[in-house]
Amino acid sequence: MTAGLRTESRPFNRVGMKRIGITTTVPSEFIFAAGLAPVDLNNIFVTDINSSGFIELAETEGLPRASCGWIKGMYGAARAGMVDAIVAVSDGDCSHTRTLLEIIQSEGMPLIPFAYPYDRDHSLLRKQMEKLAAWVGVSMEDAEKWMNRLDSIRSKLWEIDRLTWEENRVTGFENHLLLVNGSDMEGDPDRFEEKCGRFLEEARQRPALPQQLRLAFIGVPPIIGDLYEFIETLNARVVFNEVQRQFTLPFRSDDIVERYLLYTYPYDVFSRIRDIKEEIAKRDIHGVIHYVQSFCHRQMEDVMFRKHLGNIPFLTVEGDAPQKLDARTKLRLESFCEMLSLKISALGRPGC
Fold first, then answer.
1. What's the longest Cα–Cα distance across the chain?
2. Which residues of 249-275 are buried (b: 16+ CB within 10 A; e: fewer)?
3. Which of 120, 118, 142 is nearest to 130 (CA)?
4. Helix, strand or coil for residue 217?
5. d(CA 254, CA 316)
6. Mind spelling out the 3-state secondary structure of 43-93?
7. Residue 120 and residue 98: Cα distance in Å, rounded?
8. Inter-residue contact 253 to 122 (CB < 8 Å)
9. Strand partners, 292
10. How far apart (Å, rounded) are the C-alpha atoms in residues 93 and 266?
11. Secondary structure class of 275 (helix, strand, coil)
12. Helix (H, G, I), strand (E, B), or coil: what is residue 231?
């Protein structure tokens, strides 16, 4: 049991319930196996036409103005009746999430915390999965069958990612938008798989994109709406979205516990650094953009990334609320890409 949060070993009352909110990637196989639809609260919030309204609702209810926009957005989405219950990551995500869960639970929302063990202990993660299985009323075997089903979709997302960096037929924003939905499959695996299949058919027919500069985007998915679009006006393109790719579980294993132990985001920063370095080398990256969210503890990871990613050019970009890029950030991005272009020209290094 996670301290501060009440949990029950018996299944919750599923009568009338369909949509299960998640606060980040969790083993959604268990939710699908129960005939329910996982819905990423982050995606509900940031794609809503009135996303700022969720933040206003949260602040009206007393959440501090000087707190993470994602936290306030998720709270607003939960309060707006977008989901019937929540599976929430209490360990392995934002340090503010636990208090958010206590607030939501105090308001009567059915909720179960899910904890990723920091030391990647297989038995501890299995216990968390067994608790989740009991809560939704399924077995580990049921979830493993769904892992095989979802891998059919994930393989399409992996191909979309390959077309992004190897064949240069997919934009950084398209890559982001599809891979980020690997967390919940948009709540409907069949429809989402069809969507990915149609996209692949169209993308394979495209000519290679013209941008010369190849960028890595690391850190949490951005809350800024036009970031990718602006980057692509600078003769640059994101060919690696770190966390979004991790949401697709881009590794093979028949053991569902092992799959979620290989998933880097909830654990130590060093496994993320190893993954990022491998992808930088494979994808011929010219520069790294590290996106950090205002008032998030993960801002401190910037120190580790700068220290351990070598001499690759590195720019940190900070966002707060769902809005467009400000003039200062645009200028910093322009200067960064101009510097990369000059460096490539000086080295005589070909672009993509």
1. 66
2. bbeeeeebbbbbbbbbbbbebebbbeb
3. 142
4. strand
5. 37
6. HHHHHCCCHHHHHHHHHHCCCCCCCCHHHHHHHHHHHCCCCCEEEEEEECC
7. 20
8. no
9. 318
10. 6
11. helix
12. helix
- Indicate the Cα dihedral angle 8, 10, 11, 15, nearest 10°: -100
DSSP 3-state percent helix, strand, coil across the chain (nearest 5): 50, 15, 35
CA distance 249 to 259: 7
**pLDDT over threshold 80, residue 19:** yes
Burial class of residue 348, CB neighbours in 10 A (0-12, 13-18, 19+): exposed
| CATH number for the domain formed by residue range(s) 19-140 | 3.40.50.11890
Q: DSSP letters of 7-33?
A: --SSPP--TT--EEEESS---HHHHHH
Q: How far apart are CA 159 and CA 336, in angstroms?
A: 29
* DSSP conformation letters of 119-172: T--HHHHHHHHHHHHHHHT--HHHHHHHHHHHHHHHHHHHHHHHHHHTS--S-H
Distances (CA, A) of 327 to 160, 296, 330, 340: 32, 23, 5, 20
- Mean residue pLDDT across the chain: 88
What span, in angstroms and rounded, lies between the C-alpha atoms of 259 and 93?
17
In three-state secondary structure terms, 177 is: helix
- Of the ranges 10-14, 311-315, 320-324, the best mean pLDDT one: 311-315
Determine the Cα–Cα distance for residues 312 and 285; give it in Å rounded to an integer.
9
- The model's pTM is 0.89
Opening angle at CA 222, ends 219 and 227, nearest 5: 115
pLDDT at residue 88 above 70? yes
Structure tokens that stand for 64 in this block: 């501090």
DSSP 3-state of 315: strand
